Amino acid sequence: MDTEWMAEGKCKELSPTIFFPSDGVGVQAAQKICAECPVAGLCLEYALDERIDHGVWGGKSERERRRILRRRRVSRAIAV
Ligand code: SF4
């Protein structure tokens, strides 16, 4: 998958540890940065496609991404 979008990410000059928080406050701090990121949509799709379990990607927490994947699976199952 194309990763050129990463060069445009708001996080590119920040510490990666911000995006791998250990608590909810940390998740919210990362999400605040992602909310202003021009490539958040691409980042989220990348994390979903690659099944990345950890960290905040595209402004979504691990739990939120699991929920999105579950919803998509259900939608695909209904469409078949
Ligand atoms: S959405 Fe967040 S994690 Fe993804 S590139 Fe942008 S700032 Fe980085």
3D architecture notes:
Helices cover 49% and strands 0% of the residues. With 80 residues, it is mainly alpha-helical. The chain has one domain. The chain is globular and about 45 Å long. The chain starts with 23 loop residues before the first helix and ends with a helix. The mean pLDDT is 97. Bound molecules: iron/sulfur cluster (SF4). Iron/sulfur cluster binds next to helix 1 and helix 2.
Q: Which percent bin holds the helix content? A: 40-55%
Run of helices and strands: HHH
Strand content: under 5%
Distance between the termini: 26 Å
Count of discrete alpha- or pi-helical segments spanning 4 or more residues: 3
Name the poorly predicted regions.
none
Largest sheet: none
Q: How many domains make up the 3D coordinates?
A: 1
Distinct small-molecule ligands in the complex: iron/sulfur cluster
The number of strands is: 0
Q: How is the quaternary structure best described?
A: single chain
Return Rg in Å. 13 Å
Shape: globular
The overall pLDDT average reads: 97
Structural class: mainly alpha
